[in-house]
Queue: 4 jobs
Job 1
Amino acid sequence: MMRWAASLLSRGEQGELAWEYDALGNCTALTLPDGRNLKQLYYGSGHLLSIALDNLPVTEFTRDTLHRELSRTQGGLTMRSEYDRLGRLRRRDVFKGDSQRPAPRVWSRRRDFDYGNNLIREERDDNPFSQTLWNYDNAGRLLSQDGAQPGNEQWRWDGAGNPLDRHSAAQVMHNRVTELNGIRWQYDIHGRTTEKDDGHTRWRYRYDGEHRLTDVISEPRDRNKPRTKVSFRYDPLGRRISKTSQQLLQGRPSGNAVTTRFVWEGYRLLQEIHDGIPLTYVYSDSQSYEPLARIDGVESPEIYWFHNAANGMPELLTDGEGQKAWEGINSPWGKLLRESSQRMPVVQQNLRMQGQYLDRETGLHYNLFRYYDPDSGRFTQQDPIGLAGGINLYQYAPNALGWVDPWGLRRSCKPNNPTKNNDHNQGAFARQWQGRGVYKGRDTWQNTILKENDIVYGGVPGQSGFYFDKATLDAAAGSRESLWKSLQVLPHPKFGYRGQIQAYRVKRETVAGTGEALSQDPIKFGAGGGTQFFLSNFRTVLEPVGNPFSMGK
């Protein structure tokens, strides 16, 4: 058997990183600047099975036939996951012990969603009195929260998605919020936030020529509290590599400066370093920004495991014995409202929503290419990619419970979407198209696995997510009308049935929705009976084979 591997090397201010890959392009080992190795073991076409630091296990996964996570080990705990009929993460239970012989449950989370995949209810520990409810408008914007943690709250929005102050009738000009919930903001001619004042502290922001935040000066109203200055440095890729905090006395630096340094794996935070001690972050898969574990120290490393909200924001850290080391109560927009630590010395946890890092000195979240203000639920600067990131240049998302923006550029698919990773539950996604327009929605969809190099067919021009198999093509005996009637596709009112067919090769193993095309209306559509496939990720998993060929009438 031929084996193939590749390696990459990256050098930075904090040292050297090296990666090793298998023949399928999966990263099997990451060498940290201190020489330790993070090892990943995969099965099949690249599904993560386990992670280890050298010979120290970090986590092990079990998965179902769709390769969705069923369980993961977290030190002395095991977390189990359940999904609803649409493939959304419905429930998570945490048990003492391993995945094979778990002891009684420690805690649980149960979630319900609406038809737009918005999170509408979360229940803790099967206790209906511990539930939290959320309500949205037709645009998916969060309107209200009702629950014990973190409490009841309501929001108002204008037509552009800007939050409106409950006690003010002032309009938001140019999408720049200047007052909200007793906090005031000021902007410069570039649309960058230059000042923030909450009545207790005033913060002043400074930027460089690349519009990157370089300094934040905090000025407490209480004269017994010192003024502080926090400075930031970036590498040529725009990633923040250090922050330095120092007190000011009569406008001049006073006392010892405290510097935190950062190491990056691509555009994902890998380490934060305090006094030479690294905190290393491990994520749930190679493409994810949802944290799985944190490894503190080098000589005698201690591992903490993350327990996250539906949007991937940390709620708990547990240690190797399964004990809570840190717990946080968060607002729906990512603000850390309360936190507690049962460890001495106190364990701090600074990761917020996916891709965000909390700067406690400023209250802002560093979000790679921008900074995010959890008090407004918006970015402090306009989007660097302009309107490509959305029509509102400051908006994070319609709601932060179901959307993520790890780069601070453009919100991405909802974590609760059944096709989040584009191949988890295609059958469920296909069912969402049922009953639209003249289609009555009689088809039954289920999931199947298309193997690498399988061939499917589709009509051209106009590639879409719907395809069919060779048996359906052969049954049409060269007749385009017979083919499309078997698949319940109406002719174009001007051009008729599509007369050309393209064969496509499946580039990698993937989940597809499949089912028989049942008759919608025999007179209008024909008898049906063809086998159809649905692939929302067709652009990434299919490639054309040869040239299109023509069908007869």
Job 2
Amino acid sequence: MKAEYRRDGVKHVYFIDVVVEHRCGHRKAYAVKDTAKAALEDDTAGKLRLICEQDTAGLADDYRLVTFAGLDPAAVENASLIARCGAEQDREAWEGDRAILPGLPGTVTAAGLGEASGYGVRGMRAAFALIPAGLLRNPPGERLHMHTPLTNGSSLLSANHAA
């Protein structure tokens, strides 16, 4: 996302790396740098502060700086896949997957869910889109693919844990 700001009377342009819009409508804009040192060297925090102060268009509600240091590469790839699948807004496939999850075992795959729901690839992509809602959970540190074992959160919710 392109953001403009003024510093010392001079107009500048900065490209925000990631914008996340939450279901409630709150938008967060993230500048991503390799290291904290790189962020300091180009004064990324200062630029974001100016963009935030001068944002009259409402580009975002919150501006943040993050670095790749300490980020799990699999988590970054998974977040990208989940966001792409969620952006498709395939509500029919989402609801189809949601409807059958309670009757499935505690571990499922996206491919298996797509097949079981009858939505095929659409159901598989819907499975990835349902991860942020907690209906499915992916194993930490493992890249998502069609045969990744996913924990079926619906089966955990419906299980009787009484002793």
Job 3
Amino acid sequence: MSYLKVLHCTLCIKQGALNLSNKSVLLKIGNKPALHHLIKISTSCHLNANPPLTSQSTTAKAKNKKVPEDTRVWKETPTQDVKNNLVQYSMMLSKFRLTSLVVMTSMAGYALAPAPFDLTTFAICSVGTGLVSSAANSINQFHEMPFDAQMSRTKNRVLVKGLLEPSHAVGFAAATSVTGLSMLYFGVNPLTAALGAGNLILYTSIYTPLKRLSIVNTWLGSIVGAIPPLMGWAGCAGELGAGALVLSALLYSWQFPHFNALSWNLRPDYSRAGYRMMAVTDPALCRRVALRHTGIITATCLASPYLEVTNMWFAIESLPLNIYFMYLAWQFYKKSDSGSSRKLFRFSLIHLPALMFLMLVNKKYWTSSDTQEQKDSKPQDIKHPETKRITVLPRGPVVAAQDSTVHK
């Protein structure tokens, strides 16, 4: 407990949110000279050493607003208040809307798999995926507390506002991750649990710190978002087939126009917090990548029937959605303004659910036996040992020659 408080106070002091002489700091860590000395040593260098990522003109326009102190300092929260708002705070820790999207893509993967639908396994897989996602988001907020305090978009998060102690976030993450992975392993299958554990590690240990180091974080984050459909597919079929890869590829590419459009209007926030996003470091690349991946989505949908995932109707019905998605991405690429980015982002929220619905309606195989039954229904050549063949002699009449397997 003391370590977590020291860590959080250290981060806040480095960001200028606290002063070691302030009484609020003493209340957090107690009257322990050793801890005071530890904080002084750990705050001797400034944490946000990276220079601003935007140009001076952009920074001037952004009006670098200082976040009020009361939203950046952790405060002792009464136990009764935590109990009364436990559900609400837990939803905030788990990033409920983001977790809901993750669960929805996992459900789509389960429903699209060519295997019998089992309601119990489906429910366990969905809840387990949601718990693992909640754990990942909680750990993410714990790591990014001082940086979230500098962004208008994230300054009201539960840890930044001091509604919960950092130890609560760690405990919540531990409980949800262990419960979720156990449900996936024992209630679904080991493959689904392995995918969930790998995604949890990828998101918290690699993607989260990489956000402040390189724009590669966007590509890595798209991989994180593409794994939940694989979990759903594996939960139903017990293996990963071509259909799982198609749905995962769609999720991977969809995240680029979605996130690049979202981050475009948040460039001052990301720059102030020191995040290395394409929209900040390379705006032209940000727009090109968004446009490129709308084209990849269209091509993937057209290829889906040939990969034995959906019927041809899916390729036809998804085409208007994808063409309009490409059009909005093109407008974003050409205009590069807040209006075009906002339109692209909002349509992306409609595009993904509509695409998954069309895939489900036009699913080609509903059980794993459908493929074999279709193959069995095709006429096959039957070879009989007594079949005669005609041989034409060089200068003679046409004679019937029996096969060598037939006795004369």
Job 4
Amino acid sequence: MYSTNCFPQPDPVSSTSSGTSTLTPTVEIDTSTQCQNIDTGTMCPCLSPNMKYVNLTQEVLEKILENLKKELTLNKTLLAKSLRRRISAKDSRLSSQLMGYTGAIMLATPILIIVLSDVANLIRSLSVKKRRRNGSTYPA
């Protein structure tokens, strides 16, 4: 594994207790004398996405992409946006309730007028058919 003791990275900005920060000079490190016994090929065994050259087959890349898609895909029905769309907020103010009832009455009134006029015509036509079947000649 990569040892941070071998290649120390000095902090170029250090802060003091008064809250101000001072810039420290960059330190050059001679790695030839400090890390003579470390094999640089085994420092980092992980596959870093920042590596310049990585030899992966097409199948491995497709599997990695499938796994990423599965991990990053969200169920849209469980998102807060879709849940809030289905739930209306409760408003207990009298003015808002009156506005709601007024709107419902205004929507229902034309529908009721049309339906009731059709029901009256339906009753009249059914009574005429019934009289004709019975042989009655009463005017409708």
